[in-house]
Design goal:
heterotrimer, A alpha/beta (264), B mainly alpha (277), C mainly alpha (249), A: 264 residues, alpha/beta, 10 strands, 37% helix, C: mainly alpha, MetI-like fold, 0% strand, globular
Chain lengths: 264, 277, 249
């Protein structure tokens, strides 16, 4: 790594305390470095703590053990330098698409004329032109996620945290959205941390894939997945197939382990 | 199952600290009630208010005790409970039957639907004098007005509950060979139970409210009647005693209902959810 | 039009049965005066101002009690959901006060504030505060974590989150609680006015009944019942508009 990392996750452990029952070690001594403009996927079976790690970087959960630094500063809470997109969109249902996108800009104290224009630009960017005055309840799942992505991109965070953003979408929409995200990312390169349990998605989108182990969550390996993704037949591309196969073999054992633990 | 790890962070001081917080919050929960009762007693004794406006808590408790010794408390409580519960049970059974009939029979639905949709939001307590005119002032009249008030939420809840039963559930049961009767008893009613229970939980406090008003207006034995009698003689200690007694009945009945709900719906996700206030 | 007619035909049938039962004296006309007589009595009550005078004082009581309970109940409920100390102090009191059949408070409100408006307003306020508080509390507590987090990451402070996310999110449950309160306010109003009052619907019903003018008594009973129904429908319309974002099609 030539340049210093933008995000440094340094030896993080995290305890999950359910309202009832015993606490669970969700993350165990996890370390990770992410460079600027890098697209990294966190991949692992459900319950491996990948979302927890994302929430810690976002500053939504308190860091208890270890440290997370963004641009050299320890994370102490949420901030507009790190935008987040959730699986279930988290759009404000009482605001229109435009209202949702405007919200972050208002909070940044942007002047009215400027934020109106900017909101429309981003609504256009995600292909929601004509739907700016619709409420989320009127949109399909894919459109909701486009709106959520526009909302987050609009206030221009340096880092984009994505928590299984396409997990709630049907397969076709999902494929389209993946292409869309790649297109947007190539136009506005940001550092992206992308949580998923879909191996193909991880390989398709990211430069590196961090494969996590089942509970307690650890980073098992990091696989380099940077190669030319512009092949129109990418899913049959030799490198792609090999990478998917390599990562799938790493993940399979963990998935089986996680299954066994849950049914036990 | 998940791996449980005792982390090094949980030393003795942390455990003691957590215990201390549990105790402090636990104490705080009782604190406001105790403070309220203490404030009542102190305010009453400080002569800020006359004993007519605010009799001391101790005097009220003494009155409850003497009512209990004389046997009045038992008679009045039993009568109020009998009327409220009779009204509630008739509403519960009748409401579920009417609701089921409406869900399964087009004619019943045609007839009852406008009556329920217009009748539900009406303040039916206004019909109390009409009920007195027809049925007099004894138990029949009191129970009737309770039923008139309490049956609507049960009917409405039953209709909505049965409408809400998933088609796939019914189809699966049919697929496995359930006949109409079995379908109703083994699939539709259990699936509709959570919402029906919610309707019953609206009807129960309503039964008590109406029972007390009916007793106040029609007189005779019963906690409402006794309170009215006491207030006519400016006996505010007995009025306050009546409130405490009725409040206790209300508290016990509503708690009992919540327990029954938990028992019946042990399969429902809400049973596993953390308890709410 | 025809559809509405068919839908509400059962009510017309009931009205017709009422009229016939009274006209042909299947039942005593004292117990059930003919519907047409009731309508005539209603017009008379309206013309001599009796009905309007008593309506005005009843509606004033409902407005006062319900208005107070909405304002204070909303603040308490959201406060309980948002600040743990408020919750710890108030939750036990709400829990103890919640199951009290509120009609039991009628004599006490009279002891405190007399026979007039004050005691009715206090009773309605106390009774209606419970569903409003619980609605606001449940609504505010259920605000979705991810939505709060989204707002925080866009730079909203804690108070902004309360105002922009928690309160709008609490609206559906809060408005539902207020609907319960609205129904309860009519019940408590009529109850307290039937038991002790010098004016209002309940008083009018009681005094007409005592004077033996049963047709007029029926007229007032039906008026109150209709007002309760109309208030609920009007309220639902307001809710539908307020929550338009929930299911616009």
């Amino acid at each position: 790594m030539q340049e210093p990392a933008q995000i440094v996750v340094d030896n993080i452990s995290h305890l999950y305390r359910p309202p009832r029952g015993r606490e669970v070690l969700a993350l165990d001594a996890v370390s990770l470095e992410v460079r600027q403009s890098e697209f990294i996927a966190l991949l692992g079976p459900s319950g491996c703590g990948k979302s927890t790690l994302l929430y810690l970087i976002g500053g939504f959960l308190p860091v208890e053990k270890g440290e997370i630094r963004v641009d050299g500063k320890a994370v102490a809470g949420p901030g507009p330098d790190r935008g987040i997109v959730f699986q279930h969109f988290a759009l404000f249902p009482w605001k229109t698409v435009r209202g949702n996108v405007l919200y972050g800009l208002e909070r940044q104290g942007m002047a009215k004329a400027e934020r109106e224009k900017r909101a429309m630009d981003y609504i256009e960017l995600v292909g929601l032109h004509g739907f700016e005055d619709s409420y989320p309840s009127q949109l399909s799942g894919g459109m909701k996620q486009r709106a959520a992505i526009a909302r987050t991109l609009a206030f221009d965070p340096k880092i984009l945290l994505m928590d299984e953003p396409f997990g709630a979408l049907d397969a076709q929409t999902r494929g389209l959205m993946q292409m869309e995200l790649l297109r947007i990312w190539q136009r506005t390169p940001k550092t992206v941390i992308f949580v998923t349990h879909d191996v193909q998605e991880a390989v398709l989108l990211s430069d590196r894939v961090a494969v996590m182990s089942a509970r307690p969550g650890r980073i098992k390996t990091i696989v380099d997945t940077k190669f030319d993704k512009n092949d129109p037949d990418i899913f049959k591309n030799k490198t792609f197939v090999e990478k998917v196969d390599e990562i799938w073999n790493l993940v399979k054992d963990e998935a089986i382990k996680a299954q066994g633990k849950r049914s036990a | 199952m998940s791996i449980e790890v005792q982390t090094p962070r949980d030393g003795v001081p942390e455990i003691l600290g957590r215990l201390a917080w549990t105790l402090i919050w636990g104490f705080a929960r009782v604190f406001s009630i105790v403070a309220l009762l203490a404030a009542w007693e102190i305010l009453a004794r400080s002569h800020t208010f006359t004993p007519f406006q605010l009799p001391a808590l101790s005097a009220v408790l003494e009155r409850i005790w003497s009512d209990a010794e004389s046997g009045d408390l038992a008679i009045n409580t039993a009568l109020t409970l009998y009327r409220a519960m009779a009204g509630f049970l008739i509403s519960a059974v009748g409401g579920v039957v009417v609701g089921m009939a409406m869900s399964r029979n087009a004619a019943a639905n045609w007839f009852f639907d406008p009556i329920v949709s217009v009748g539900f939001p009406m303040p039916k307590i206004a019909f109390l004098p009409v009920v007195i005119l027809w049925l007099g002032v004894y138990d029949t009249a009191k129970i009737t007005i309770i039923v008139v008030d309490a049956i609507f939420p049960v009917i409405a809840a039953t209709v909505i509950a049965i409408q809400g039963v998933e088609r796939e559930l019914i189809w699966s049961a049919r697929n496995m060979g359930a006949n109409n009767r079995q379908l109703l008893h083994q699939v539709i009613l259990p699936a509709a139970l959570p919402q029906i229970m919610t309707g019953l939980q609206v009807a129960l406090p309503l039964s008590l409210i109406v029972a007390v008003v009916a007793e106040m207006l029609m007189g005779g034995y019963g906690l409402g009647g006794a309170m009215m009698q006491a207030s006519r003689f400016a006996n505010s200690t007995s009025v306050f005693a009546g409130i405490v007694e009725i409040a206790v009945i209300g508290y016990v009945l509503i708690k009992a209902m919540a327990i029954i709900r938990r028992r019946l719906l042990i399969w429902h996700p809400e049973a596993n959810a953390p308890a709410t206030a | 039009m025809t559809k509405t007619l068919i839908r509400y035909l059962p009510l017309l049938i009931l009205a017709l049965v009422w009229e016939m039962a009274a006209r042909f004296e299947w039942v005593s006309t004292t117990a059930l005066p003919p519907l047409t007589d009731v309508v005539r009595a209603w017009v008379e009550l309206l013309l001599d101002g009796e009905l309007l005078r008593n309506s005005a004082s009843s509606l004033y009581r409902i407005g006062g009690g319900l208005g107070l309970s909405i304002v204070i109940g909303t603040v308490l409920g959201i406060g309980m959901a948002w600040w743990k100390p408020v919750n710890v102090l108030l939750a036990p009191i709400v829990e103890v006060f919640y199951p009290v059949p509120k009609s039991a408070l009628i004599p006490v409100t009279v002891i405190w504030l007399g026979y007039g408006d004050g005691s009715k307003i206090l009773l309605i306020f106390l009774g209606c505060m419970v569903p409003v508080t619980i609605g606001a509390f449940n609504g505010a507590r259920a605000s979705e974590q991810v939505m709060v987090w989204s707002a925080r990451s866009m730079g909203a402070g804690k108070l902004r989150v309360l105002w922009d996310v928690v309160i709008p999110g609490a609206m559906p449950e809060l408005l539902n609680g207020i609907r319960t309160a609205l129904a309860l306010s009519f019940i408590l109003l009529v109850s307290s006015e039937l038991v002790v009052a010098q004016k209002g619907f309940g008083f009018l019903i009681g005094s007409l009944g005592a004077g033996g003018s049963y047709d007029a008594m029926y007229a007032v009973v039906l008026t109150v019942a209709f007002l309760g129904f109309a208030a609920d429908r009007a309220y639902l319309e307001i809710v539908r508009r307020t929550l338009a974002w929930r299911s616009v099609t």
